[in-house]
Each structure stands twice: as structure tokens, then as C-alpha cells.
Design goal:
This protein has 256 residues and is an alpha/beta fold. Helices cover 41% and strands 17% of the residues. It binds nicotinamide-adenine-dinucleotide (NAD) and zinc ion (ZN).
Length: 256
């Protein structure tokens, strides 16, 4: 085997000995699947104006603009496939190496890669939810209605307001999911924060919570984050490649 950097050996070692490792992922794990992140140049924020939740609730124009943007983004999501990073994390869950995965992503790629214990802090773009009767629907036919008829689809059950099952700015995070994410973080002995700029709370608070309770913190991200000073190890580089190397070392250790 070629020489592996000592931080990678260290992380593989921590992973092998951990009893309750938790992973937090952000948009950076999905850029290698062709889904742009928010803050990088060309990312979502440089292209669209934000439709806040209040505007969505109050105004038909706001709802139209929201659906227009979401349907345009849908193309990236619908075609995307999990990449090496998603696959490694799914294998770690199957092997009992990680307790679960908390994600800020809404693309559903962790589940497509086979991860089962996933907490989606910001919901999922693969479904729509009715704000009035709470019914949920597969997103595909609704996107098709919008694109064919250029109108916002109504809830088939109650005629109410349909929105992607994701959390908009100004909208509350699902309290049960957030509570569970907090619990996992408190009980973690190792947290890997992967592909998140760690500036959006409450997700960005989770590594701090884990650390306060004595967990080791590993940050894997291309750019620096505000939590870097807290980290026990930091890897900068492409996520898919780095996770693949850690996985290789980890399996070499455990003889699997
Ligand atoms: P972010 O855009 O703020 O940060 C992504 C980070 O990933 C950046 O710091 C960047 O340096 C890093 N990165 C990007 N590609 C990388 C790669 N290949 N290897 C290593 N590092 C890489 O994303 P965020 O912190 O997740 O927060 C933005 C919000 O946007 C989230 O709340 C999420 O809901 C939403 N979002 C989701 C998706 C998705 O579901 N795929 C995409 C865009 C935005
Ligand atoms: Zn309804």
C-alpha cells in the first residue's frame, strides 16, 4: 500500500474503536454527483432570489416563483446518482461502524446509496407536503403538472397549498428530527462533519454539542469552517476520494 497520511490513519483508527460515531453531511458531499452547493460560485444562491416562508404562505406570486425555482433545480436532483462518498457512508452503517447520519441535504442521495438511519434536518425534495392537511406526495407528477401547465399544483386531497417537503427560510425545522439529531450528537463519541460550511444553525451547532460531551470531531471539507479550531482532525480535499482512502485503511486495520 502507498504511504497513507497520518491523519487518515488516525481517523480510521478512531472509527474502528468508536462505539457511537455520527456523521453530519452538507451539500459538499453531493457536488460530486452534479448537484451544486449553495455558497460556491455558480451555486444556488448566486442564481435565485430567496422566497421566504412568509411570502410563500401569503402570496400566490411567491408560490409561483418558489415552484418555478424548485422545478428548475429538480432537473439536477432527478438525474443525480450517489457518488463514492455516499456509498462509503452507507457501507459504514451496514458494518455497524456508524450509529447514523444527520444531513442538511434534501436530495435523498444517502438513502439511494443504501443508508437507512438518516435524519433529514431540512426535509426532502423528493416529496411535496400539503401545508393545510399534511398529506405527502411523490414530487415527480407535481413537477410534471407545473412544467406542463405553468401553474402551481393544489393538494389533490384538500385543494390546499402544496410545497416541497423541505424547510424554507423562516420555516421551523421538524422538532422531532431536531431533537433526535441533538440526542445522537450528545451521545456520540466521534462526529464526522463532511461537506458542510458549518455556518447554518442549528446543524452547525451539532458538532459543538458532540464536542462539549467529549466526542472527537473530524471535519472533512474543501474550505475552512468556523468550527475548525474545535476539530481533532481536519481533511481538506475531495470528499469521495478522502472517504474512499479512509475506508481502505479502516478495512486493512479490521482485516475485513
Ligand atoms: P454549503 O453550500 O454551505 O457548503 C458546502 C461545503 O462543501 C463548502 O464549504 C465547500 O467547500 C464544500 N464542498 C463542496 N464540494 C466539495 C467536495 N467535492 N469535496 C469537499 N468539500 C466540498 O452547504 P451546507 O453547509 O450544506 O448548507 C447549505 C444549505 O443548502 C443546506 O442547508 C442544505 O439544505 C441546502 N442545500 C442542499 C443541497 C443538496 O441537497 N444536495 C444542495 C445545495 C444546498
Ligand atoms: Zn391537503
Amino acid at each position: 500500500m502507498t504511504r497513507v497520511p497520518p491523519e487518515i490513519e488516525q481517523i480510521a483508527d478512531w472509527l474502528a474503536s468508536s462505539r457511537s460515531a455520527v456523521v453530519l453531511t452538507g451539500a459538499g458531499i453531493s457536488t460530486e454527483s452534479g448537484i451544486p452547493d449553495f455558497r460556491s460560485p455558480g451555486g444556488v444562491w448566486s442564481k435565485y432570489r430567496t422566497v421566504y416562508f412568509d411570502e410563500f404562505l401569503a402570496s400566490p406570486d411567491g408560490r409561483y416563483e418558489y415552484w418555478r425555482q424548485k422545478c428548475e433545480m429538480h432537473r439536477d436532483f432527478a438525474a443525480a446518482q450517489p457518488n463514492a462518498g455516499h456509498r462509503v457512508l452507507s457501507r459504514w452503517e451496514t458494518a455497524g461502524r456508524i450509529h447514523g447520519l444527520i444531513t442538511q441535504n434534501i436530495d435523498g442521495l444517502h438513502q439511494l446509496a443504501g443508508s437507512r438511519r438518516v435524519l433529514e434536518l431540512h426535509g426532502t425534495a423528493r416529496q411535496a407536503a400539503c401545508l393545510d392537511c399534511r398529506a405527502r406526495y411523490d414530487i415527480e407528477p407535481l413537477v410534471a403538472i407545473f412544467l406542463a401547465e405553468m401553474r402551481v399544483p393544489d393538494c389533490p386531497e384538500c385543494g390546499g397549498r402544496l410545497k416541497h417537503a423541505t424547510i424554507s427560510f423562516g420555516q421551523m425545522l421538524p422538532p422531532d428530527v431536531l431533537m433526535e439529531a441533538n440526542r445522537w450528537s450528545r451521545e456520540a463519541d466521534l462526529m464526522l462533519a463532511i461537506g458542510s460550511s458549518l455556518v447554518v444553525t442549528p446543524a452547525a451547532d451539532l458538532p459543538r454539542i458532540a464536542k462539549d460531551r467529549g466526542a472527537r470531531l473530524v471535519i472533512i471539507n474543501r474550505d475552512p469552517t468556523p468550527l475548525d479550531p474545535l476539530a481533532d482532525a481536519i481533511l481538506r480535499g475531495p470528499i469521495g476520494e478522502l472517504l474512499t482512502v479512509i475506508n481502505g485503511v479502516f478495512h486493512a486495520y479490521s482485516g475485513k
